[in-house]
Amino acid sequence: MTVRATVAAPTTGRTVPAPSFAHLARLTDDTGLFEHARHATVRREHGYCTDDVARGLVVASREPDPSAAVLRLAERYLAFLAHAQNAQGAFHNRLGFNRTWIDQPGLGDWWGRALWGLGTAAARSPVPWIRQEALLAFTRGASRRAVAPRAMAFAALGAAELLRADPGNEPAAALLADAVTTIGPPDPDPRWPWPQQQLTYANAALAEAVIVAGDLLDDPPALTAGLRMLKWLLDIQTSDGHLSVLPSAGWQRDTPRLRHDQQPIEVAALADACATAAGITGGQIWYAAVRQSIVWFLGDNDAGQVMWDPATGGGYDGLTPHGPNLNQGAESTLALISTLQHRATR
Known about the structure:
Blueprint: H1 22-26, E1 37-38, E2 41-42, E3 48-49, H2 50-62, H3 68-84, E4 94-95, H4 109-124, H5 128-141, H6 149-165, H7 170-183, E5 198-199, H8 204-216, H9 220-236, E6 238-239, E7 242-243, E8 251-252, H10 264-281, H11 284-298, E9 308-309, E10 314-315, E11 318-320, E12 323-325, H12 330-340
Antiparallel strand pairs: 1-2, 3-4, 5-8, 6-7, 9-10, 11-12
Organism: Actinoplanes lobatus
InterPro entries: 6-hairpin_glycosidase_sf
GO biological process, one term: carbohydrate metabolic process
């Protein structure tokens, strides 16, 4: 159900809030993270998905000083992923509210996101048993290879987290190298320097995967290629000094580009990739892009509308021509949290 309403535009001189986990906790029960909400109310009938639970583990693990409540979220998300994984390293994606899997284990995007979450938890969690269990599940999953570039890119981000913490982790290094091959080199055409003929969703994650591979595997050509891809993405998604991200329909090469509906996941992916590029290169353009990503949620966007609810801590599901979709599902709330986690980036 799509709900749209007009939200007052923010004033200048915005105060950037700390990420709130309140709505994420509202969407979480003792099993996992519910996918959808109507406004701020959980829609249990839609069940859970590994995609969102994995992203939940990413943001919970990235908190530098997690509260007891955030650690409990990380524990539940880790348990969900362990339950979703089979002995061969693949993952189920969809669990009904009746606690029954409604799909078969596979190597889709959810596999990649699961490895992203597990790699982040293994590298960053302050709790030893969480790190150990996450590493075990990551290693099992990292023995597999997906054919889809996005699935491999998401998995590569988890591998990169592990390699930063443990440069000798061979399964992570091999996965990261194979991800670059699967993503492919950017097109030499400066008008479309992208490995594929279509941009779909979370596009910046592909560029980020190539960037971190170039950095961690000492591969300067890959680093250059990834930065070139990211710079182009940033250029085409900037309008009049603010972000105007690609819509849910994506963009096919040599076709007209649509402007709506814009999804928070695009902003979050761009924030992550630009924060990574800033940390590696120190380039001011990347720091500025992180700030643009943050203020997109605060109202510096095409519609001049706030894209989150301060009363609940939830992120709005999309930006339409008529204003925000006021539903506060898991994906948009996770996008808000992950973007605000970069607020200290300078």
